[in-house]
Structures are given as C-alpha cells and as structure tokens.
Amino acid sequence: MIQTDKTNPTPETPQEHKSSFKDSLKSMDTEETFDLIFYRPIGYGWAMLAKKLGITPNAITIASIFLGVGAGVAFYFNNIWWNLLGVFLLVWADSFDSADGQLARMTKQYSRIGRILDGVSGDIWFAAIYVAICLRENVTSEFFSSHHWVIWVVAVVTGLCHATQAAMADYYRQFHLFFLKGKEGSELDTASRLWERFHQLSWKKNFWSKLTLAFYTNYTVGQEKRTPWMQKLRVILNKKYGNDIPQSFRDEFRAKSKPLMKYTNILSFNTRSFALFAAILIFRMPWLYFAFELTVLNIVLIYMMARHERICKNFVNQLEK
Asked: What pLDDT was estimated at residue 22?
C-alpha cells in the first residue's frame, strides 16, 4: 500500500499559483503596473514564506518600519554607496509593505490595528527620510547651512501635504473597492461608527486600543471633511438602498471612478520613490524631492479631488431625481 506523506503537501500547479497570486491582490482596478511587475511578485514570495513560518502581517509591517528608517539614515550621507544602500533598504521596506497586505488577504487576518499600522509605517519611513534630508542639506548646501530653519519649515509643510495626499489616495481607492467588491472587500469606514466604537471602549481597560482609535477616527474625519459630495452620496445610497446597492449602480460608479485610480497610484509610493531617488542619486540635491511633492503631487491631488467630487455630485443629482 502506498502511503501519502501529509507533511509535504502537493506543490501548487502553475494555474493554482496564478490564482493564489491574484487572490492576494486588492483588485486589478486599483493595482499599479509597476507593482504588478515588481513589488507584488516579490511581496507574494515574502507572504508565502511568512505563511509557512507562521509570521503575522503586523510583524512584517513592523519589520518594514526598521528598514524604512534605515533607508533614511543612509540617505543622510553625501556618499553614493550609502545612498544606494538607502535605495535598497527602501525598496526592501516596500516589498514588505506589499507582503503584509497580501498575507492578510491570503490568511484572512484582517484587523483595524493592522490597517492603521500599515498606514503609519509609511509615515515613519518618510519622517526619517525628511529628517535625513534636512540634516544633510544643512551640512552640504551653502544656502541652507546659512539659513538652517528654512529647510525644516519646508519639510514640515511638505510632510503635511504628504499626509493629505496619501490619506485621500487611500480613501478614494477604498471607495472604489466598496463599489467593486462590496463592504467585505473594502476597508471603508465612517467617522460616526468609529466614534461609537471609541465611546464604547474604556480608557482604563482599553487604553492603547482607544488611543489608536482616536487617531484613526480623526484621520477619517479629515477624509470626510474634504469630500462633501462623496458623503452626500453615501447618505443617499444608505437611505435608498441600505446594504443592497444595485449591481447596475455599482458598475456605473466603478466605470466613472476607475480612470481616477491612476492618480491615486501617482500619489502612492512608486512615483514618490522615483522622484526621491532622482533627487538624491542623479541631481545630488535632496531638497528637490520636497519641491516635487509641493508642486507636482499637490496639483495631482487637487485635480483628483475635484474630478471625484464632480462624479459624486452628478450621481447625487441623478439619485435625487
């Protein structure tokens, strides 16, 4: 009698591997081409390894924070080899950032803490990079070394713009996923529900959970304040259909929203990293990265928000009729 070795499961066939990889993605609507070619395959490899080793998505996210901060330290030095090390570390960090989400989708390990941690990790990377750029420019630039405060003011303003750009790109992406996959396939929240949950928690018994939820709720409040027509559309849809929005309406909204996904991707990691690498490696003037975020990315943000609000306004008018 032939016995089956249950300790060594049958390897995936190419078709199964392709299906498993596709299931680890958010959606083809929202994926960026460079991610599909580069980061998602690498992230999938990390996710499969983590799954075998029993490593959680949050552990991968935390590891990415250390890699991102290491990249910031390497960018401080005005030396090409240190800077190339920084590029390597930042790319590695982003492959982990891809892997944590893919692992969460593969293993169904979803949590609000994980979503918050995932967003915070990128902010910590860039905070370290901003500090490194400021310290470096104060040493290497004749202008900034004579006016130390200027680069720090520019960094703070840029950081605020960066936070808004990332928050709105994520918000529009989640709204699109809501119409594409429904509530279960999206991480779309409402500030009212979050505040309800916040008041249910006790500072004494749930201090860290309540503190984290406070920051996340304020983050969501900011997203909602910047999108008045989107909020009107959500209210009308809820009153009219509840949780049973017709598929025809979902498809119609998706068709209008999908062209804007390319702008959410521009405001995400890849475009930023290419600009950062060019400023540091090619032009040898890191401050140019701040200029890029303050001009190009803010223009993209304003255009994306105006387009999306116009789409939502048209749907509101259509539903009210």
From this structure: 83
DSSP secondary structure of 203-232: TTTSHHHHHHHHHHHHHHHHHHHT-HHHHH
How far apart, in whole angstroms, are the C-alpha atoms of residue 240 and residue 246?
10
> Residue-wise over 215-248: b if at least 16 C-beta within 10 A, else e?
ebbebbebbbebbebbbbbbeebeeeeeeebeee
Full-model pTM: 0.91
Of 66, 67, 47, 49, residue with least CA distance to 57: 47
Q: What is the pLDDT of residues 209-223, one digit of tens each?
A: 999 999 999 999 999
Collapsing DSSP states into helix, strand and coil, what is residue 285?
Answer: coil
CA gap 102, 125 in Å, rounded: 20
CA pair distance 155, 278, nearest whole angstrom: 18
**Which tens digit of pLDDT belongs to each residue from 239-250?**
999 989 999 999
Tokens of 81: 């080899």
How many whole angstroms separate alpha carbon 190 and alpha carbon 175?
A: 11
